[in-house]
Amino acid sequence: MIQTMIQQIVRQIEDNQSFLVVSHENPDGDAIGSTLGLANALREMGKQVVALNVDGIPQIMQFLPNHDQLETELPTDTQFDVAFVLDAGDLVRAGVPVRDCCRTLINIDHHPHSDFGDICYLDTSASATAILIDRILNACDYDISLDVAKCLYLGILSDTGSFRYSSANPEAFAVSGRLVGLGIDPWEVASSLYESLAPERMRLLGLVLPTLEISACGRYASVALTKEVLEKSGASEEHTDGFVNYPRAISGVEVALFFRQTADNTYKISFRSRGKIDVGSMSRELGGGGHHNAAGAKVTGSLEEVRTKLSHLLDRLLA
Ligand SMILES: [Mn+2]
What we know:
Layout: H1 2-15, E1 18-23, H2 29-44, E2 48-52, E3 70-71, E4 80-86, E5 102-109, E6 119-122, H3 129-139, H4 146-159, H5 170-181, H6 186-194, H7 199-208, E7 213-214, E8 220-225, H8 227-233, H9 245-248, E9 255-263, E10 266-273, H10 279-285, E11 289-290, E12 294-300, H11 303-318
Parallel strand pairs: 1-2, 1-4, 2-3, 4-5, 5-6, 8-9
Antiparallel strand pairs: 7-8, 9-10, 10-12, 11-12
The structure holds manganese (II) ion (MN).
């Protein structure tokens, strides 16, 4: 089944010339790594490619090959033979009208419930979309280059939390081992991702950590950021990436939350869980989405109201 899906995608690559490669807004390492990995490979095959992310590329990933060729807007009046939507979960998260500008829409993803596209290659057992791109490229008449290897490795490193999460399965290690064998430098990727932080991010973290609240039961904890504090800090949204991991790092905490104000009465909540608590289904109840251990949703109300609402939900969930 999966093999025929890969064969269908390989045929689309072989039989066509112009490609759009896009991923989800507010991109993480897997979104960017998959997009640039596939786009670079297609270019090396002699194809015409537009790689796009509506929010552009986070600064810490601006060492990836051809990152400066990542567009943030669709070129006008351009029709593509094939559009790839990667790691998106939902087509709307592409942020551009992909459906209208391509003949064939291919969805490649490892998020559950991602079922759009003329061809939908979904494998929730894959630790990253970059793994699926690697499988496809290996089925093509093409040898993965150093440029492409670097992008795919970043995707895997990012989605497995540097091989710490339970998503770090044997395939993640095997593919990464092969990519390292091609000559990429793991330290270059890791130091760019984790030790090239903007000073504003560290200062913002200093303002966010004092908002830490740990529940009476000790099993969930949260930090919060209002628009006012974000504006005062001089940092931007992308600097908040990973803040939710701080409350999760506390001994005994099973669910971590990060409340980030996005409008006057709206908070975006990032959820992380360890072990068996399914934050994906909880965030779907709130109109959001995500995986078992990582999810997000938007909730309206003041910070107090939103925190209280989530406390009630979590007290019930953990009871
Ligand atoms: Mn992913």
